Amino acid sequence: MSNKRFWIMALPLPVNEATGSSPDTIDMTKWDLFNQIRSKLQDSLGSTSYDYFPIDLPMLKVGTLDGLMGLSHVLERVEPQCEASLHKLIASYTALCTESHSSAAFTVSGKKPEAYLAGFTFNGSKYRLDQKLSDLVTEISDEVAQMDALVRSKQSDYQQAKNAVKQSDKSRSGSLLNRSIGDLLEKYGDKAVPVQSEYLTTVYIVLPQHERAEILKDYVNLAPMVVPDSLHLLESDSDHSIFALTLFRKHLTDLQNAVKERKWTLRLYTHDQQGREKQKELDQKLEQDCSGIQGNLVRMLRTNISEVFMACMHLKFIRCFVESVLRYGLPPNYLFLTVSIKGTQKEHKKLERKLMQNVAGILEDLKLPGISPVDLASFNAITSADMDSELISGSEEAELWAALNSGGILDHAPFVRFSFEF
């Protein structure tokens, strides 16, 4: 995951301007408020760590107060689930792209994710605005759940195909205890074709490397009627060696008992050239099928990431709208904006703290409706305590903010905002 961090915010418009009857006037008011806030934030925070983008959200159906409060609780559960689904899709997509040595970049509605967020527009043709918000939220969450289930099914198919290929690879390049004897014999050509007759048979003994001297010294005594000079080393690895040995078939049981006593492994093999060719064809087909399933899954994930990303953003803005109505009240004339928080993941928390403090300070001066001056003053007093002191260390600052967060102070900021990371 790239760990890009965004805020989605909503602020009420000034009372004397928000009551204007002309839509153009309201839009201009939004722009004025946005430009004013952006200018103040850039003056205090600079322009290198943050980018600000106004969002033109259409009028959504407000409904009743009881309905909004119920929907707020539903969104508190559903919206994080949608974001979690998106993160899982991105993680799966990144892992698959790493396997196939391809780029893990993705787009959202044909744009880079950052560009989509910066210029977010509500897709009214897909998510109808004339329906109740509760129905709209159910539609979006059901859509995400269906895509999630489909991806899990395809991932299961891919995992089964991978396991089949791994099992095939194991028979060719795994431990000598399991590796295909036919593959080992191919190294030696016709000279290594095992003896299989009415009276004679060739068997294969796998034993630890440190016991090679024992079998070389005493192989003829493992069983009666072992063919002299028939023992030869077929293959070795860091742990085991495998030897071919020919003896009279009627004493095979004696050899099995001797091998078992020494805790070695006896492997039997019947040479079948046609069967070998068919197995090769099957192995190639397994690899081709696995590659095809992987390619289809990558394309599905890329498409579903785009769809779930858009669904997630619609849910976040709906949640932002619902919380704005509950906090700021009516009429629902609000400025919606996104803030891109730059820097590394380690820097994000500190950048968010500074942004939180400065937004709250600006709002205290603007005196916007629905934002309690008392709450703002209290919030600013708490969060700014000792923050400007030259004596406070980075660890102490982190502890202070952790304490504020654990007490719910930061989660209950006096303005509506939600964070988003991908």
Kindly state the number of beta strands. Answer: 8
What is the structural class?
alpha+beta
Gap between N and C termini: 6 Å
Strand content: 5-15%
Order of strands, widest sheet: 2-7-1-8
| Continuous helix count | 12
Which residues form runs of ≥5 with pLDDT under 50?
Answer: 17-28, 386-392, 404-410
Tell me about the biggest sheet? 4 strands, antiparallel
Fraction of helical residues: 55-70%
Broad shape: elongated
For the CA atoms, what is the radius of gyration?
35 Å
Q: Provide the succession of SSEs.
A: EHHEHHHHEHEEHEHEHHHE
The average pLDDT is 85
Structure characterization notes:
The N and C termini lie close together (6 Å). Helix content is 55%, strand content 13%. 25% of the residues are buried. It is elongated and about 105 Å long. It has twelve helices and eight strands. The strands form two sheets. A four-stranded antiparallel sheet has the order 2-7-1-8, sandwiched between helices. It has 422 residues and is of the alpha+beta class. Strand 4 and strand 5 form a beta hairpin. Residues 17-28, 386-392 and 404-410 have low confidence and may be disordered. Helix 2 (23-45) crosses helix 10, helix 3 (65-99) runs parallel beside helix 5 (133-173) and helix 5 runs antiparallel to helix 9 (273-328).
